[in-house]
Amino acid sequence: MHICLIFSGFFLFFSLIFFSISIYFIILNLTWFLEFNLLMINSSSMVMTFLLDWMTFLFMSFVLFISSMVIFYSREYMSGDIYINRFIMLVVMFVFSMMLLIVSPNLVSILLGWDGLGLVSYCLVIYYQNVKSFNAGMLTALSNRIGDVALLMAIAWMVNYGSWNYVFFLFELKGDFYMNVISYLVVLAALTKSAQIPFSSWLPAAMAAPTPVSSLVHSSTLVTAGVYLLIRFNFCFSEELMYLLLFISSMTMFMSGLGASFEFDLKKIIALSTLSQLGLMMMILSLGSYELAFFHLLTHALFKALLFMCAGNIIHSVNDFQDIRYMGGLVSFMPLTCTYFNISNLSLCGLPFLSGFYSKDLVAEIMSMNYLSFYVYVIFYVSIGLTVCYSFRLVYYSFVGSFNFLSLNSIYEGGITMIKGMGGLIFLVIFMGSMLSWLIFPYPYVIVLPFYMKIFTFFMVMLGALIGYEMSKFVISYESLSLNNYKMSWFLSGMWNMPIISTFGVNYYPIVSGSFLYKSLDQGWSETLGSQGIYKVIFSGSKILQIFMMNSIKIFFILMIVWLGIIYVI
Question: What pTM does this model have?
Fold first, then answer.
């Protein structure tokens, strides 16, 4: 088990160093651009470039800290796995791919990190090697391939500028046709990686991975790569692209919030909540506040990692059940885990003075400051209400409601190592929001709004909590629903049929046409005109020759008589 402790300590050490460096960079407003000449052939040089600024170091320190806690937590969570070292090495490769993506100002080296994330995530999703894992892994890999291809096309378009270092061109060439094409391709790549509509179905499917992986993927690595790429590219986006991104992200935020309110799988609810928060980040990014999107990205990483760790501990304790209807009253058995879970849940809802509040409240108020349209305003506040709704529903089903599990059970707090791993994050979930707001925004901000606009967020939060609590009491099981309600809740929890569309919808017609072509061509005309036809011709020819060979003397005499007859006639 020593490999877990080695990497955990290594990541924790570098996390603290990078955090200190990021503070230094913020204070002095520094940006470093490092170039390493790898190869020189004639007059062409192959150069590896790194962009180091406060954003790079801060994000890297968060990724490393969360990875450190997750690897420490995995030491006990994956203790029954005989290949735990292989698992840890996969996680480490995952983290290093993310590091490469964070420090790259160059589209080619970004693609290396981007594809590294895609490949390693496939290996981790199929880790348990059953049919469900293989399907989920294939859906994840193929959905992300669309974004990879978009990034490759962006690399091809950047050849027009003579360099792949996009940092040099973002300001100067904004509005240029080539830069517009590149920005659309980058947004497409980010939409697939961050699972926005219509590529959302892979995110809940990726829950087939072990829970520590889910904790890492959903907090600071895979899904945030798309948002981070957009934060880096945000200076070159045209107004039309911003509006398109705003619409897509707002729909994703609303869809996932609604889906989580009807879902019963514990990990899928938290996965859909990640999708909702990604929609929120993209939404605020498309309104022009890239620093605020980055701020929410960091605070969200903390409480989402802790949420998944607590969910993993709960799933372990209830014999690997994930259906929240089997749980209930867990607060009596697992008080510390439930406390951690509730604190991170309240941080997700934006309870004042937890870390989620600082970013979420600021997002809501800045959104209210510049009125864009009635649609954006309504869908934003409804989505905030839905966040609280599914959070309170989850708390009711899991911890507060009646105990629904087996009467003979072994529910207990769990091992000390998992609790320590979660305990490392809980202080940051509480205090880091205020600390980051002082760091990222060095000047004090005052947002003046009318009273009803200030109080509207609070009103939506309270309304969402009430609806979530009432839904939990009312909708106990699908059996109590009418058929129409059942279809509606199935449609909403199934992400508006997106998983079906992106699997059967994409597969059905190619498979049917392939079957038709196989029957008509492979097993049909090409057989008749090809191998089987040639075989029949040769076979019938050889039959005739065989007759000649078997009866050679008879035929010789017959031919002689025929020949004599012909001579006689002539």
Answer: 0.86
